[in-house]
Each structure stands twice: as structure tokens, then as C-alpha cells.
Amino acid sequence: KYEAVIFDLDGVICHTDKYHFAAWKCLADKLGVYFDEQINNRLRGVSRMESLEIVLENFSGKLTEQQKLQYSNQKNEIYCDLLKNMDSSDLSIEVKQTLDQLRRRGYLLAIGSSSKNAGFILKQIGLENYFDAISDGNNITKSKPDPEVFLMAAKFVNKAAEMCLVVEDAKAGIEAARKGGMDCAAIGDAVNCNMADYNLSKFSDILGICE
Ligand code: G6P
Ligand code: MG
């Protein structure tokens, strides 16, 4: 049924949540803004600037666009420093073996991530040059739930939307896939939104869908 699989990166291929959390918490503390894991979970799949707006919901002061840009840059610097802690051990054997198996079965494999750090993260976990295409925060103008990032990924692998399966851990990502006319499989938290075509209890369950 499908010819390509488009994977979200953060929360699907590897886990960067704790680094995002630590970096946003650092910024929030500096601004005196309350921030917790629950707020952090709302940032999944959301672009950096939109994430900042969510973090600032509890901020009483007013910031100029330039200040916002400065703060989002500061968060990113802290985040990138933390990403240096990642290595090939952050890619699970299950994920790697599943990807390899999909490849053997003839599927094209792509990344569809809102992150501008996708390339760096892939490099850290040893998947640089592994995917047939990477569509990320650097080649889009609208982030999830807009379908742009997935439509670009489909275009990069030269497949129609109906031929692509999207794998996502965020509600915004499931919405994006649906808007783009793609079937989607939810993993992790996204299972709870009950909007996906498939719910995965583990990554390797994809092999049951893409036979
Ligand atoms: C992913 C993460 C989000 C993050 C976004 C932008 O979608 O799930 O939590 O805000 O990427 O990441 P970036 O690395 O560009 O700041
Ligand atoms: Mg994600």
C-alpha cells in the first residue's frame, strides 16, 4: 500500500525531550516564568518561535520581536550544547533494525521534522546520510500542524501523498499528516489523541503495517 515512510525525528527516531526541557527551563528561570514537563509536552512538533510563545504564556511583561529572537537563540544555544551529549547509543537497536528492515523491503525512508537541528541530531546518532530525504525546519515556512514539512518530504522522495505513511509522536504532526492527505501512525503520546490511522505500541510495529 505504501512506498515511502516519513518519520518525525524528535520522539520517534530518538528522544530529545529532556534536552528541550532543560534548555527551555533555563530560559524560563531567567525570565522568572513558570515552566514544567506538561508545558514542555505542548512544544512537541511546534517550531522554535511558536514554542517560545507558549513558554511566554505565563510571562507578564512584554517583549519586542527582537528580544524574542534573542531569547529563542539563547534557548537554541543551550539546547545545541546539550545535543553534544548524544551519540549512537541514543539510537535504539529496535529503531535501527526496523529502519534497516523497511529498507530491505524496498521502502523509501524520509525525515519530516520541524527542527532546524535535524541534521545535527541525525549526525550525533549516526544516521547522517541514512535517509533518502530530509525535510526539516530549514526548508519550510509553516510548521506542523501545517502539512508543508511532510508534503516536501514526499516531494523529495518523489512519491504522491497517498503512497506515504507518516510516523508521529505529536498531535500537531498527526494533524499535519492528515491535512497533507497522508496516512499516519501514532507512537507515544500521539496515541492518546486517537486521530491516527494506526496506533503503535512500539516502533517495530511499523513492520506489521509495511509488509
Ligand atoms: C521538533 C520538536 C519541537 C521543537 C521543534 C523545533 O518538532 O518536537 O519540540 O520545538 O522540533 O526544534 P528546533 O531544534 O528547530 O528548535
Ligand atoms: Mg516529535
UniProtKB/TrEMBL annotation:
Record lineage: Bacteria, Bacillati, Bacillota, Clostridia, Lachnospirales
Keywords from the UniProt entry: Carbohydrate metabolism, Isomerase, Magnesium, Metal-binding, Phosphoprotein
Entry-linked Pfam families: HAD_2
Residues at the site labelled Important for catalytic activity and assists the phosphoryl transfer reaction to Asp8 by balancing charge and orienting the reacting groups: 113, 144
The name this protein goes by in its record: Beta-phosphoglucomutase
Family: Belongs to the HAD-like hydrolase superfamily. CbbY/CbbZ/Gph/YieH family.
Cofactor: Mg(2+)
GO MF term (any one): magnesium ion binding
Record InterPro entries: B-phosphoglucomutase_hydrolase (IPR010976), Beta-PGM (IPR010972), Beta-PGM-like (IPR051600), HAD-like_sf (IPR036412), HAD-SF_hydro_IA (IPR006439), HAD_2 (IPR041492), HAD_sf (IPR023214), PGP-like_dom2 (IPR023198)
Catalytic residues (UniProt): 8, 10
Cofactor details (free text): Binds 2 magnesium ions per subunit.
GO biological process: carbohydrate metabolic process
Binding site for substrate: 8-10, 24, 43-48, 51, 75, 113-117, 144
Binding site for Mg(2+): 8, 10, 168-169
Known EC number: 5.4.2.6
The reaction(s) this protein catalyses: beta-D-glucose 1-phosphate = beta-D-glucose 6-phosphate
